[in-house]
Fold these 3 entries.
Entry 1:
Amino acid sequence: MLDVPGLLARWRGCKVYLDTNIFIYVLNNTPVYAEPCLALLQACADRQLMGLTGDVTLAELLVKPLQANDAAAVAAVRDLLMEDGAIALLNHDRTTFEEAARLRAKHGLKMVDALHLATARQAGAVCLISNDRQFPVLSDIECLSLVG
Protein backbone atom coordinates (compact mmCIF):
# COMPACT_ATOMS: atom_id res chain seq x y z
CA MET A 1 0.00 0.00 0.00
CA LEU A 2 1.16 3.53 -0.71
CA ASP A 3 3.35 4.87 2.11
CA VAL A 4 2.02 8.42 2.51
CA PRO A 5 4.54 9.44 5.22
CA GLY A 6 7.35 8.16 2.98
CA LEU A 7 5.87 10.05 0.05
CA LEU A 8 5.81 13.22 2.13
CA ALA A 9 9.41 12.71 3.22
CA ARG A 10 10.44 12.41 -0.41
CA TRP A 11 8.17 14.91 -2.20
CA ARG A 12 7.07 17.46 0.46
CA GLY A 13 6.17 20.75 -1.23
CA CYS A 14 6.23 19.20 -4.71
CA LYS A 15 3.54 18.87 -7.35
CA VAL A 16 1.83 15.48 -7.23
CA TYR A 17 -0.77 14.49 -9.82
CA LEU A 18 -3.68 12.34 -8.65
CA ASP A 19 -5.50 9.96 -10.98
CA THR A 20 -9.29 9.77 -10.83
CA ASN A 21 -9.32 6.51 -8.88
CA ILE A 22 -7.78 8.27 -5.84
CA PHE A 23 -10.92 10.42 -5.57
CA ILE A 24 -13.29 7.53 -6.34
CA TYR A 25 -11.91 5.52 -3.41
CA VAL A 26 -12.46 8.44 -1.03
CA LEU A 27 -15.93 9.35 -2.30
CA ASN A 28 -17.06 5.70 -2.20
CA ASN A 29 -15.24 4.95 1.07
CA THR A 30 -13.70 1.91 -0.65
CA PRO A 31 -12.31 -0.57 1.90
CA VAL A 32 -8.50 -0.78 2.00
CA TYR A 33 -7.99 2.14 -0.43
CA ALA A 34 -10.01 4.98 1.13
CA GLU A 35 -7.68 5.48 4.11
CA PRO A 36 -4.38 6.04 2.23
CA CYS A 37 -6.19 8.13 -0.40
CA LEU A 38 -7.77 10.28 2.29
CA ALA A 39 -4.34 10.74 3.90
CA LEU A 40 -3.01 11.81 0.51
CA LEU A 41 -5.83 14.34 0.04
CA GLN A 42 -5.28 15.60 3.58
CA ALA A 43 -1.60 16.17 2.82
CA CYS A 44 -2.73 18.27 -0.15
CA ALA A 45 -5.25 20.18 1.98
CA ASP A 46 -2.49 20.84 4.53
CA ARG A 47 -0.31 22.11 1.65
CA GLN A 48 2.34 19.49 2.36
CA LEU A 49 1.92 18.41 -1.26
CA MET A 50 0.73 20.45 -4.21
CA GLY A 51 -2.13 18.25 -5.41
CA LEU A 52 -3.05 18.35 -9.10
CA THR A 53 -5.53 16.59 -11.33
CA GLY A 54 -7.09 17.27 -14.71
CA ASP A 55 -10.54 18.33 -15.86
CA VAL A 56 -11.06 14.78 -17.11
CA THR A 57 -11.18 13.71 -13.44
CA LEU A 58 -14.14 16.02 -12.87
CA ALA A 59 -15.92 14.51 -15.88
CA GLU A 60 -15.19 10.95 -14.74
CA LEU A 61 -16.34 11.58 -11.18
CA LEU A 62 -19.61 13.21 -12.20
CA VAL A 63 -20.89 10.36 -14.40
CA LYS A 64 -22.42 8.09 -11.73
CA PRO A 65 -23.92 10.91 -9.61
CA LEU A 66 -25.49 12.39 -12.74
CA GLN A 67 -26.82 9.00 -13.84
CA ALA A 68 -28.37 8.55 -10.40
CA ASN A 69 -29.65 12.14 -10.38
CA ASP A 70 -27.88 12.48 -7.01
CA ALA A 71 -27.53 16.21 -6.41
CA ALA A 72 -25.71 15.69 -3.10
CA ALA A 73 -23.08 13.49 -4.75
CA VAL A 74 -22.65 16.01 -7.60
CA ALA A 75 -22.15 18.73 -4.99
CA ALA A 76 -19.62 16.56 -3.12
CA VAL A 77 -17.58 16.06 -6.30
CA ARG A 78 -17.68 19.75 -7.13
CA ASP A 79 -16.71 20.66 -3.58
CA LEU A 80 -13.82 18.23 -3.58
CA LEU A 81 -12.41 19.40 -6.91
CA MET A 82 -13.59 22.94 -7.42
CA GLU A 83 -14.52 24.58 -4.15
CA ASP A 84 -12.07 23.40 -1.55
CA GLY A 85 -8.91 24.48 -3.41
CA ALA A 86 -6.72 21.70 -2.03
CA ILE A 87 -6.38 20.16 -5.49
CA ALA A 88 -5.58 22.29 -8.54
CA LEU A 89 -7.87 21.34 -11.41
CA LEU A 90 -5.89 21.62 -14.66
CA ASN A 91 -7.22 22.22 -18.16
CA HIS A 92 -6.27 19.93 -21.02
CA ASP A 93 -5.18 21.99 -24.01
CA ARG A 94 -4.31 20.95 -27.55
CA THR A 95 -0.64 20.44 -26.68
CA THR A 96 -1.65 18.10 -23.86
CA PHE A 97 -3.92 16.09 -26.14
CA GLU A 98 -1.14 15.76 -28.73
CA GLU A 99 1.28 14.57 -26.05
CA ALA A 100 -1.37 12.13 -24.81
CA ALA A 101 -1.67 10.74 -28.34
CA ARG A 102 2.13 10.29 -28.50
CA LEU A 103 2.16 8.52 -25.12
CA ARG A 104 -0.73 6.31 -26.18
CA ALA A 105 0.98 5.43 -29.48
CA LYS A 106 4.32 4.67 -27.83
CA HIS A 107 3.20 2.92 -24.65
CA GLY A 108 -0.24 1.51 -25.53
CA LEU A 109 -2.02 3.41 -22.75
CA LYS A 110 -5.77 3.96 -22.64
CA MET A 111 -6.55 7.49 -23.84
CA VAL A 112 -7.69 8.72 -20.43
CA ASP A 113 -4.52 7.39 -18.78
CA ALA A 114 -2.37 8.97 -21.48
CA LEU A 115 -4.21 12.26 -20.90
CA HIS A 116 -3.58 12.07 -17.15
CA LEU A 117 0.11 11.37 -17.74
CA ALA A 118 0.52 14.10 -20.34
CA THR A 119 -1.23 16.62 -18.07
CA ALA A 120 0.94 15.64 -15.11
CA ARG A 121 4.13 16.00 -17.14
CA GLN A 122 3.07 19.32 -18.64
CA ALA A 123 2.31 20.68 -15.15
CA GLY A 124 5.74 19.64 -13.85
CA ALA A 125 4.48 17.03 -11.38
CA VAL A 126 7.20 14.90 -9.81
CA CYS A 127 4.88 11.91 -9.66
CA LEU A 128 1.53 10.57 -10.74
CA ILE A 129 -0.34 8.49 -8.19
CA SER A 130 -2.87 5.96 -9.42
CA ASN A 131 -4.01 2.44 -8.78
CA ASP A 132 -3.26 1.49 -12.37
CA ARG A 133 -0.03 -0.36 -13.00
CA GLN A 134 0.29 0.07 -16.76
CA PHE A 135 2.00 3.47 -16.65
CA PRO A 136 5.44 3.40 -18.26
CA VAL A 137 8.73 4.18 -16.54
CA LEU A 138 9.76 7.67 -17.65
CA SER A 139 12.77 9.76 -16.71
CA ASP A 140 10.87 12.95 -15.87
CA ILE A 141 8.02 11.65 -13.69
CA GLU A 142 7.55 8.75 -11.32
CA CYS A 143 4.31 6.78 -11.64
CA LEU A 144 3.25 5.26 -8.32
CA SER A 145 0.54 2.69 -7.69
CA LEU A 146 -1.42 2.55 -4.45
CA VAL A 147 -0.64 -1.14 -4.14
CA GLY A 148 3.01 -0.85 -5.09
Entry 2:
Amino acid sequence: MQLVTISRAFNPAEAHLVRSRLEAAGFHPIVTHELASLGLEGYAMAAGGILVQVPDDEEAEAKNFLAADPPADNSQSPAS
Protein backbone atom coordinates (compact mmCIF):
# COMPACT_ATOMS: atom_id res chain seq x y z
CA MET A 1 0.00 0.00 0.00
CA GLN A 2 1.37 3.35 -1.09
CA LEU A 3 0.15 6.63 0.41
CA VAL A 4 -0.70 9.49 -1.95
CA THR A 5 -1.26 13.16 -1.15
CA ILE A 6 -4.74 14.40 -1.98
CA SER A 7 -4.75 17.67 -0.05
CA ARG A 8 -2.19 20.19 1.15
CA ALA A 9 -2.81 22.81 3.86
CA PHE A 10 -0.72 25.47 5.52
CA ASN A 11 -2.35 25.23 8.94
CA PRO A 12 -3.23 22.18 11.06
CA ALA A 13 -6.91 23.07 11.46
CA GLU A 14 -7.53 22.98 7.72
CA ALA A 15 -5.65 19.70 7.33
CA HIS A 16 -7.58 18.03 10.15
CA LEU A 17 -10.89 19.31 8.81
CA VAL A 18 -10.16 17.55 5.52
CA ARG A 19 -8.99 14.43 7.38
CA SER A 20 -12.15 14.30 9.50
CA ARG A 21 -14.43 14.72 6.47
CA LEU A 22 -12.63 11.85 4.76
CA GLU A 23 -12.78 9.62 7.85
CA ALA A 24 -16.51 10.29 8.24
CA ALA A 25 -16.98 9.17 4.63
CA GLY A 26 -15.16 5.88 5.27
CA PHE A 27 -11.71 6.70 3.89
CA HIS A 28 -8.42 6.04 5.73
CA PRO A 29 -6.55 9.39 5.72
CA ILE A 30 -3.48 10.43 7.67
CA VAL A 31 -1.95 13.86 8.24
CA THR A 32 1.81 14.23 7.74
CA HIS A 33 4.36 17.04 8.17
CA GLU A 34 2.21 18.62 10.86
CA LEU A 35 4.75 18.61 13.69
CA ALA A 36 7.54 19.87 11.45
CA SER A 37 5.39 22.78 10.31
CA LEU A 38 4.56 23.73 13.90
CA GLY A 39 8.17 23.56 15.02
CA LEU A 40 9.37 26.53 13.03
CA GLU A 41 7.29 29.48 11.91
CA GLY A 42 6.87 29.53 8.15
CA TYR A 43 8.18 25.99 7.76
CA ALA A 44 4.82 24.66 6.57
CA MET A 45 5.10 26.69 3.40
CA ALA A 46 8.79 25.91 2.93
CA ALA A 47 8.17 22.18 3.37
CA GLY A 48 5.27 22.14 0.95
CA GLY A 49 2.51 22.21 3.53
CA ILE A 50 0.80 19.80 5.85
CA LEU A 51 -0.25 16.80 3.79
CA VAL A 52 -3.42 14.76 3.92
CA GLN A 53 -2.75 11.35 2.43
CA VAL A 54 -4.81 8.25 1.67
CA PRO A 55 -3.93 4.75 0.43
CA ASP A 56 -3.43 4.76 -3.34
CA ASP A 57 -6.49 2.56 -3.94
CA GLU A 58 -8.69 5.30 -2.37
CA GLU A 59 -7.12 8.22 -4.25
CA ALA A 60 -9.61 8.77 -7.07
CA GLU A 61 -12.70 8.33 -4.92
CA ALA A 62 -11.33 10.55 -2.14
CA LYS A 63 -10.44 13.32 -4.61
CA ASN A 64 -13.95 13.13 -6.08
CA PHE A 65 -15.43 13.29 -2.60
CA LEU A 66 -13.44 16.40 -1.71
CA ALA A 67 -14.26 18.06 -5.05
CA ALA A 68 -18.00 17.59 -4.53
CA ASP A 69 -19.95 20.33 -2.80
CA PRO A 70 -20.22 19.73 0.95
CA PRO A 71 -23.72 18.86 2.15
CA ALA A 72 -25.92 21.76 3.20
CA ASP A 73 -26.17 22.43 6.93
CA ASN A 74 -29.81 21.82 7.74
CA SER A 75 -29.33 21.97 11.50
CA GLN A 76 -30.43 25.60 11.76
CA SER A 77 -34.12 26.24 12.16
CA PRO A 78 -35.70 28.55 9.58
CA ALA A 79 -36.17 32.19 10.51
CA SER A 80 -39.70 33.14 11.50
Entry 3:
Amino acid sequence: MESMSERPHAASYEAEDYSESNAFRRKHKGATGGRDNEKLLTIQQVADLLHVPVSWVYGRTRKRSIERLPGIRLGKYWRFREEEIHAWVGSQRGGHRAA
Protein backbone atom coordinates (compact mmCIF):
# COMPACT_ATOMS: atom_id res chain seq x y z
CA MET A 1 0.00 0.00 0.00
CA GLU A 2 1.30 3.45 -0.90
CA SER A 3 1.80 5.98 1.78
CA MET A 4 0.34 9.46 1.40
CA SER A 5 3.81 10.96 0.94
CA GLU A 6 4.61 8.68 -2.02
CA ARG A 7 1.42 9.46 -3.91
CA PRO A 8 1.21 12.78 -5.77
CA HIS A 9 -1.44 15.03 -4.33
CA ALA A 10 -4.41 15.93 -6.50
CA ALA A 11 -3.99 19.56 -5.47
CA SER A 12 -0.53 19.67 -7.02
CA TYR A 13 -1.95 18.45 -10.34
CA GLU A 14 -4.72 21.03 -10.20
CA ALA A 15 -2.23 23.80 -9.50
CA GLU A 16 -0.11 22.71 -12.46
CA ASP A 17 -3.12 22.51 -14.78
CA TYR A 18 -4.31 25.92 -13.65
CA SER A 19 -0.93 27.58 -14.20
CA GLU A 20 -0.61 25.94 -17.62
CA SER A 21 -4.03 27.21 -18.68
CA ASN A 22 -3.14 30.72 -17.51
CA ALA A 23 0.11 30.55 -19.46
CA PHE A 24 -1.86 29.45 -22.51
CA ARG A 25 -4.25 32.37 -22.09
CA ARG A 26 -1.36 34.82 -21.78
CA LYS A 27 0.33 33.40 -24.87
CA HIS A 28 -2.86 33.18 -26.97
CA LYS A 29 -4.78 36.37 -26.37
CA GLY A 30 -7.77 35.28 -28.46
CA ALA A 31 -9.97 37.18 -30.89
CA THR A 32 -10.33 40.20 -28.62
CA GLY A 33 -6.61 40.87 -28.30
CA GLY A 34 -6.64 40.12 -24.59
CA ARG A 35 -6.85 43.77 -23.58
CA ASP A 36 -9.76 44.91 -21.46
CA ASN A 37 -10.46 47.91 -23.67
CA GLU A 38 -10.96 45.57 -26.64
CA LYS A 39 -13.28 43.17 -24.83
CA LEU A 40 -16.34 42.31 -26.90
CA LEU A 41 -19.68 43.06 -25.28
CA THR A 42 -22.97 41.22 -25.72
CA ILE A 43 -26.31 42.85 -26.54
CA GLN A 44 -27.26 42.60 -22.84
CA GLN A 45 -24.01 44.24 -21.72
CA VAL A 46 -24.49 47.12 -24.20
CA ALA A 47 -28.06 47.58 -22.97
CA ASP A 48 -26.80 47.68 -19.38
CA LEU A 49 -24.00 50.09 -20.32
CA LEU A 50 -26.41 52.49 -22.06
CA HIS A 51 -29.26 51.95 -19.56
CA VAL A 52 -31.70 51.03 -22.31
CA PRO A 53 -33.83 47.93 -23.05
CA VAL A 54 -32.30 45.06 -25.03
CA SER A 55 -34.97 45.64 -27.71
CA TRP A 56 -33.61 49.17 -28.22
CA VAL A 57 -30.11 47.81 -28.85
CA TYR A 58 -31.47 45.25 -31.33
CA GLY A 59 -33.31 48.08 -33.08
CA ARG A 60 -30.02 49.97 -33.48
CA THR A 61 -28.34 46.94 -35.08
CA ARG A 62 -30.79 46.78 -38.00
CA LYS A 63 -29.56 47.93 -41.41
CA ARG A 64 -32.46 50.33 -41.82
CA SER A 65 -31.63 52.12 -38.56
CA ILE A 66 -30.39 55.67 -39.16
CA GLU A 67 -28.41 55.74 -35.90
CA ARG A 68 -26.89 52.26 -36.23
CA LEU A 69 -24.67 50.99 -33.42
CA PRO A 70 -21.19 49.86 -34.48
CA GLY A 71 -21.24 46.11 -33.98
CA ILE A 72 -19.88 42.85 -35.30
CA ARG A 73 -22.15 40.03 -36.41
CA LEU A 74 -20.82 36.59 -35.42
CA GLY A 75 -23.34 34.20 -36.90
CA LYS A 76 -26.59 34.96 -35.11
CA TYR A 77 -24.82 36.82 -32.30
CA TRP A 78 -23.92 40.49 -32.08
CA ARG A 79 -20.78 41.70 -30.33
CA PHE A 80 -19.64 45.26 -29.68
CA ARG A 81 -16.36 46.93 -28.74
CA GLU A 82 -16.86 49.09 -25.69
CA GLU A 83 -14.69 51.95 -26.98
CA GLU A 84 -16.74 52.05 -30.22
CA ILE A 85 -19.97 52.25 -28.21
CA HIS A 86 -18.57 55.18 -26.20
CA ALA A 87 -17.47 56.89 -29.44
CA TRP A 88 -20.94 56.32 -30.91
CA VAL A 89 -22.57 57.89 -27.85
CA GLY A 90 -20.24 60.88 -28.21
CA SER A 91 -21.18 61.27 -31.86
CA GLN A 92 -24.89 61.18 -30.96
CA ARG A 93 -24.51 64.16 -28.66
CA GLY A 94 -23.71 66.43 -31.60
CA GLY A 95 -24.25 70.05 -30.66
CA HIS A 96 -26.75 69.23 -27.92
CA ARG A 97 -25.73 69.91 -24.35
CA ALA A 98 -27.50 68.99 -21.14
CA ALA A 99 -29.20 71.93 -19.43
